[in-house]
Amino acid sequence: MSISSASVAAASAAWVWIPPFASVAKTDEYTIVRLPDYLPHPLSVAAFQPAGPLSDAVTAVLDRGREFGLPELQWIVLLGSPPGLAEELTLRGGTAPVTLNVLACDLREGAPDLPPAAVEVTVRWGTDVATARDNLAVAVATFGGSVPPEERITQMAAENTASVPAGRGGMIVAYADDSPVGAGGLEIVDGVARLWGGAVIESARGHGVYRALLAARLSYAVDHGATMALVKARTDTSSPILLRAGFAAYGQEPIFRVPL
């Protein structure tokens, strides 16, 4: 089954994460988000739609970004970003060590049938503090940053307690021998299942743990009315697994780190 490139691009552009605990600098042309220091990239551009010359608009973003006092700004060149943005960021000293593949899967006739993991894996949603903490520990071990304060973990578990039964998604953890070995997240918005944060600890890779997390999230998505699954996946890790699972590639989004 196929999905139109236009629908994937629109769903990708609509995927903007601005949590309520973030500080936000917003104008008609850009949105900069300042996240807590425990996250690996605390300053990022969430939206950028310049009305005038590209160079002037980039300068305005960087000038505003410097006011936060951090050394760099993360800037993802989205599928719908203005032409020439990547080149402009490179001229400003930006580098893109990571590129994401925008992948999508049609769920209108159900989730793809995935082979089981090679090891016994159980999955649990992060609706209690212990499971939420395990999710964050796996994410930190994989992506960097640090585990947030206990009060934030408690809050996240409470959020999942509300969102998971309501069909909006949440955090999920994979366990092998009662130890957390993988984690991920899911958010369903307007029929699109946004899969984020898929991670497996290094010692557990190659045994199907990521596939088990994927199967659980896709099954949940179908059960709650999603017709498309969307992932922004690293080219060298999760992308090959997703492509084998029935996802198709619709473009790439380099993640720039721009010095301030």
What does the model show?
- The protein has an 11-stranded mixed sheet with strand order 1-2-3-4-11-5-10-9-8-7-6, with helices on both faces.
- It is 32% helix and 32% strand.
- The relative contact order is 0.20.
- β2 (30-34) and β3 form a beta hairpin.
- The model has no long low-confidence stretch (mean pLDDT 94).
- It is built from 7 helices and 11 strands.
- It has 2 domains: 5-101; 109-226, Aminopeptidase (3-Layer(aba) Sandwich).
- The chain is globular and about 55 Å long.
Oligomeric state, counting identical vs distinct chains: single chain
State the CATH class of the largest domain: Alpha Beta
Any idea what the CATH superfamily of the largest domain is called? Answer: Gcn5-related N-acetyltransferase (GNAT)
* CATH topology (level 3) name of the largest domain: Aminopeptidase
Provide a count of the helices: 7
Tally of DSSP β-strands = 11
Poorly predicted regions: none
Taken together, the total number of domains comes to 2
Proportion of helical residues? 25-40%
- What's the CATH architecture name of the largest domain? 3-Layer(aba) Sandwich
End-to-end Cα distance, whole Å, is 44 Å
Output mean pLDDT: 94
Alpha-beta classification: alpha+beta
Give the spatial strand order of the biggest sheet: 1-2-3-4-11-5-10-9-8-7-6
